[in-house]
Amino acid sequence: MKVTRLLGSGVELADGSRIAAGTVIWTGGMRASALTEQGSGQRDPLGRLHVALDLSVTGAAHVYAAGDVTLAATDDHGNHAMMACQHAIDMGRYAGHNVAADLLGLPTMPYQQPFYVTCLDLGGAGAVYTEGWHREVKLTGADPARSVVA
Ligand SMILES: Cc1cc2nc3c(=O)[nH]c(=O)nc-3n(C[C@H](O)[C@H](O)[C@H](O)COP(=O)(O)OP(=O)(O)OC[C@H]3O[C@@H](n4cnc5c(N)ncnc54)[C@H](O)[C@@H]3O)c2cc1C
After folding, report:
1. Spacing, Cα 69 to ligand 1 middle (Å)
2. Is there a single domain that holds both residue 24 and residue 65?
3. Stretch 80-102: mean pLDDT
4. Which residues form the FAD/NAD(P)-binding domain (predicted)?
């Protein structure tokens, strides 16, 4: 049964029934925009477009992708961008640059973003800050939350 509303006291389901809960954790996952289905380009199981190193969409001349719709390699070690601001923002910069370069007939730049961090904020319980794709814990407790927000 689909969840249709978040309530202060739990969730409401499609049939109108409610499940009471003090804490609701969303684990439904994410999916790329349905616009990605309009091209013939290859997509991953999340609907993200396969792209070349410069974020040009595979099989679609002069089309570039960035952000949640993009399956982009972040480094030479097999890591790919997450559907997250951390990657969407940088990809946007590269894609914008490369669209302009393409229009002007100049060389495009390969997208690279090897530095990766995660920050899990647990509210009053503190936070965890990790670095690297193996998520090496660098900070825990109340301080990471303050440092990352600052
Ligand atoms: C609830 C939630 C919490 C999140 N929390 C975090 C977080 O803590 N940290 C983190 O790193 N990431 C977080 N994310 C993920 C992050 O928001 C996305 O990865 C990021 O915003 C992707 O950027 P984007 O530019 O690809 O897409 P978006 O930011 O979604 O921008 C796409 C834009 O295109 C517009 N649009 C869509 N379809 C059309 C159309 N057909 N025509 C015209 N305009 C259209 C949309 O209205 C939107 O403005 C969260 C996402 C959600 C949903």
Report:
1. 10
2. no
3. 97
4. 11-92
